[in-house]
Amino acid sequence: MKNLLVASFISVMVLLLASTLTVSSPALQDCSCTAPDGSCSASILCQRGCIQHCASQGDCYAECSGFYETLGIRTTLELQNATYPQLVSALARISGKDIEFSPAKADATFNTGWKRATLWDLLDMLSDRGTVQIAGKDFEKLKRLRKVLLSGDKISLCVRGTPVNTFVRDMAGLTGLPLRITAGSGMAVVNLKLQYVTLDDILVRVAEQTGTTIKEESACCSTFVRPRFALISFGGIMEIKGLLDEEIYTIVKFPTSKAPLVG
User: Fold this and answer.
1) Domain that includes residue 121, residue range
2) How confident is the model over 99-157, as pLDDT tens digits?
3) Which of 26, 82, 115, 141 has its Cα between 20 and 30 A from that of 10?
4) How many structural domains compose the chain?
5) Within this chain, do residues 88 and 43 fall inside the same structural domain, yes or no?
6) Which alpha helices (H) appear in the chain, and where do they start and end?
7) Contacts of 153 (CB under 8 A, 6+ apart)
8) pLDDT tens per residue, range 66-89
9) Residue among 196, 180, 163 nearest 26 (CA)
């Protein structure tokens, strides 16, 4: 009788443990889409949501939710007499992602001062001087996806099991737009599969499905102070650049021997 009670107790505990593991392990989310012109498709399995963009001409992308928001991380970075490996190491530390860079000119040294620039800004600067990958993804493909979304071209989209606040941060990081949830619960979950839609269409449908309001709205400021930064000594040429309304522009280029002090 005692052995029977022990066996029954063990069976009950095993069932409880199995039930606990089933509840605590997030279900895999399966997402897929096909480009409007049928040129490509993308699919992925993720534990905490997934997002797929499928554009024409073979541009299809599949990521786990939360990947793109990394591109919108803002940072202030200053390096003196730096090399590319030092800059890449700093960007990997900031982003928490593996970053690889194959420069067109490997032996360049430079001084750099970035103020509240996004990770995208820094990767974009590097991509003008070589080949960039972030977490194994070709940054040039990400640039093409941003261009497609901002141009109003129609794409196919699939989003599964993703909190709307994560989705909005992903789209903000990917597009560079200051997208924010201004009403509703950010924890509402997005589950949508859309065909032939623009970025505006996507935001409207996501807002409708989650009961939220999504707007292009800056988090601050009533008084705008234009940050500035210097990017110095690539091939003996200094570029002073500024950041205005989220767009980086070159102010002036000149030989570093004539470079002024930049504060």
Assistant:
1) 71-134+222-258
2) 999 998 878 888 888 888 999 999 999 999 999 999 999 999 999 999 999 999 999 99
3) 26
4) 2
5) no
6) 2-24, 84-95, 119-127, 139-151, 164-175, 199-210
7) 55, 56, 198
8) 999 999 999 998 888 889 999 999
9) 163
Rounded Cα distance between 174 and 41, Å, is: 19
What distance in Å separates the CA atoms of residue 18 and residue 133, rounded to the nearest whole number? 40
216: pLDDT confidence band, cut at 50, 70 and 90?
very high
Dihedral sign for Cα atoms in the order 57, 58, 59, 62 = positive
Residue 184 inside a domain? The answer is yes
Examine residue 176 and state whether it is found in any structural domain, yes or no: yes
Question: Is 30:52 a contact under the CB 8 Å cutoff?
Answer: no
197 with 181, same domain: the answer is yes
Q: Quick one: pLDDT at residue 26? A: 53
What 3-state DSSP class applies to 105? coil
Does one domain contain both 59 and 143?
A: yes
Radius of gyration of the chain (CA): 23
Query: Domain check: are 84 and 196 in the same one?
Result: no
Sole residue written with tokens 């279900």: 27
Confirm whether 10 is domain-assigned: no
